[in-house]
Specification:
The protein is α+β, with helices and mostly antiparallel strands and about 725 residues long. Helices cover about 45% and strands about 15% of the residues.
């Protein structure tokens, strides 16, 4: 079949109005696109975002293929400059949709390079004719009998990262046209963005006029934040930023406001992704090795040109300097409260947020996805939401870029909730007791971040309360400032909520988890250096001694029970060695571990109380489960379409793959070992092998139909 024959066939289909109807594969494309709208997953999945954009582009071009009028074919140049030769295979316009559609027909592998060159050249020439066209006004249809990797990668890049609207069709020898979704993106299994790989920069801005109105200065920084967002979106940067009010101004600082900007470091992603699940033991590229080394070693420092426009703008109004302020994990981890330095909690009150790149897309897409919005925002889902408000923006960021991934309703989760409720109680109580305006102003910043710390855990607590069979409902805690700025939190209600969590939510199910949340609430003041900035006279010696005792006791409990769970002892000894430098062997007995734990210095125990100690208990004990019988994960039809397509491609490439599901409901694709494949016959087209991961490293494998993964079992 010659290229001209294929071109004539497509031209005839368009002329007869039969093109769209003759194309097969629309159902799968629609399912993939629907997953983006209906999906309830709360995570930012790069793998799926790429596929969604390709599917959306295909459907958008399809909807533009109506009332097409032929303008030219390969015999006439489309250039305004008659000395230039630009020959599109087929060029149509649709006045009804205000679109121009270019068809490129390709028959051989050798034409892959020229296809991309031609598409870009035609786009530029069409913009010469229609200079203010939107990206949706210029559409491309690529019809090819072969999609080599070079063509697949190029088309995937043009659609996903450069915004071109391209529909790809594959033609077989019988001239049957099938929709093709380019798959140049290599799946790596990334779910959340690692907070330790989000770099932050903070602006120090001093107005030229020492008597400048703080409100006007705040407006300046708000405009600077808008400039940064615009430049970041133009440059393809993914990140966010926020302007904040300085609670130390004017007594403790000459800077009334500030600005902090965060950027995702691309080199950190590769080392954190589940690459082995997707690439197996295959030889990595030289670039893979170097990027992984640099990212894990914090040696990749991308420049930030998006800050330049804001710097030029602000320089005419004051002195500007930017300073590296660590990672987003440094700013959000509970460990930060052990610092004696000026962490943001102690002076910065967030005022306005902005986000850009994939984080900005995810944030704004929440508004059109009620299921995902409710899953992410909980009580905020039914309210009128401002995407630039600190309470909404911080909650979204803490969801898709948490400081740590921890088991929901595990030891770390209950300890974290206890610590954070204690800080809220402490600051709300201090605001009632302290009458000095300067101290109260500093408490405002502490309260602002304490509320942000609780946003995600409180939504998860609401979920547990809705699932658990408790005799009473939890006390209703109101969180946030009043219209006048006064805290609305009632310390007595916070105390009752902690009691309800231990006595009613956990109850007799697990004495360990009940004790954890109460101990964390009681011990939190010993771990909060910020408390001394508002109450320097407080005597914490007794609480510190109890905290050290509890930390050591928690590690010893983990040491004595870890051997009961498969793989737990090796995990525990690795944690103790990495965190406390204990020379323990993977098969150490409980008595030896206990003796080593007794040698850990008190300061190291305090440093490890918020993370390492509950992490050790999570290794030794499974998380709690609320809601009776554990139900199997049910996937949306769109998610199944995405997974099924990827798994089918992996099997075709000789890399058997299945679906993995863990105890927290996270799911994705995994490569299957030979011993697993030996357990099952070769799955049929409508079947998939499911790997179910359970606490303690235990795994089970099942053969399921794709329909079973999308259908709830009958009662």
């Amino acid at each position: 079949m010659l290229e001209k024959e294929l071109q004539g066939f497509v031209d005839n289909l368009i002329g007869d109005g039969r093109l769209v109807g003759s194309i097969v594969g629309w159902d799968e494309v629609e399912s993939v696109a629907l997953d983006q709208v209906q999906g309830s997953e709360r995570l930012l999945l790069l793998d799926d975002i790429v596929l969604h954009r390709v599917a959306d582009a295909a459907l958008m071009v399809r909807d533009r293929l109506v009332d097409l009028t032929l303008v030219s074919n390969y015999t006439r140049s489309i250039s305004l400059d008659r000395s230039e030769k630009l020959y599109a295979d087929l060029l149509y316009m649709s006045p009804e949709t205000g679109s121009v559609v270019v068809f490129e027909i390709k028959r051989a592998k050798a034409t892959a390079r020229e296809t991309i060159t031609e598409l870009l050249a035609y786009e530029q020439e069409l913009r010469n004719h229609l200079p203010f066209s939107a990206r949706t006004d210029i559409c491309f249809v690529v019809v090819s009998t072969d999609y080599a990797p070079l063509l697949d990668h190029s088309l995937s890049s043009l659609i996903t990262w450069h915004g071109l609207r391209i529909l790809c069709l594959e033609a077989d020898e019988s001239l049957q046209l099938t929709v093709r979704l380019p798959s140049g993106w290599t799946s790596l299994g990334q779910d959340v963005i690692p907070a330790r790989h989000i770099d932050t920069m903070t602006l120090r801005f001093t107005p030229h006029d020492p008597h400048a109105d703080p409100v006007s200065t705040g407006c300046l920084l708000g405009s600077a934040l808008d400039l940064i967002g615009r430049e970041a979106d133009r440059g393809g940067v993914t990140g966010f930023g926020f302007a904040w009010e300085n609670s130390d101004y004017p007594i403790g600082s000459i800077e009334p406001v500030g600005l902090t900007v965060a950027r995702v470091n691309p080199a950190g992603f590769l080392g954190a992704a589940k690459a082995d699940y997707f690439l197996g033991a295959m030889t990595r590229s030289p670039l893979h090795k170097r990027v992984a080394e640099l990212g894990c070693g914090d040696r990749w420092h991308p420049s930030s040109p998006e800050l330049d426009a804001a710097t030029r703008f602000l320089s005419s109004h004051g002195t500007v300097s930017w300073h590296r302020t660590g990672s987003w994990r440094d700013m959000r981890s509970d460990q930060r409260h052990r610092s004696t330095g000026p962490i943001m909690d102690r002076y910065a009150v967030p005022v306005v947020f902005n986000s850009w790149g994939l984080i900005g897309d995810y944030t704004r897409d929440l508004l059109t996805n009620p299921a995902r919005l409710a899953d992410t925002c909980g009580e905020l889902a039914g309210a009128v939401i401002g995407t630039h408000t600190p309470d909404f923006a911080l909650k979204v960021i803490d969801t898709i870029a948490p400081d740590e991934k921890i088991p929901t309703f595990g030891a770390q989760w209950f300890s974290r909730l206890g610590f954070r409720l204690a800080r809220l109680w402490t600051y709300a109580k201090a605001y009632q007791v302290k009458t000095d305006p300067l101290v109260r102003n500093r408490i405002r910043s502490l309260l602002a971040w304490a509320r942000a710390d609780l946003a995600v855990p409180m939504t998860e607590l609401q979920l547990a309360a809705s699932l658990a069979d408790t005799a009473t409902r939890p006390p209703q805690l109101v969180i946030g400032p009043s219209n006048g700025g006064e805290p609305t939190e009632d310390p007595d209600v916070i105390r009752r909520l902690v009691t309800w969590i231990g006595d009613d939510l956990v109850g007799n199910t697990s004495p360990l988890h009940k004790t954890l949340v109460e101990a964390a609430f009681q011990n939190a003041q010993a771990l909060d250096e910020g408390l001394l900035t508002i109450a320097p006279e407080i005597d914490l010696r007794e609480i510190v001694a109890q905290t050290i005792y509890n930390a050591r006791g928690g590690l010893e409990i983990a040491a004595h029970v870890a051997h009961r769970r498969r793989g737990a002892l090796a995990g525990l000894t690795a944690l103790l060695h990495a965190t406390f430098d204990l020379p323990c062997e993977p098969d150490a007995d409980p008595a030896a571990l206990s003796a080593m734990i007794d040698t850990i210095p008190a300061d190291r125990l305090l440093d490890g109380y918020t993370q390492a100690v509950p992490a050790a208990l999570d290794i030794a004990y499974p998380p709690l489960h609320f809601g009776g019988r554990r139900e199997r994960v049910i996937l949306s039809s769109g998610a199944v379409a995405v997974l099924r397509r990827k798994i089918r491609a992996l099997w075709a490439a000789g890399r058997p793959a299945g679906v993995y599901v863990d105890g927290s409901g996270e799911y994705g694709i995994c490569l299957l070992e030979d011993e697993v494949l030996a357990m099952f016959r070769s799955p049929g087209d409508d079947q998939v092998i499911v790997r179910s991961a359970r606490p303690g490293g235990m795994e089970s494998h099942f053969l399921r139909t794709w329909t079973e993964l999308t259908t709830k079992p009958s009662q």
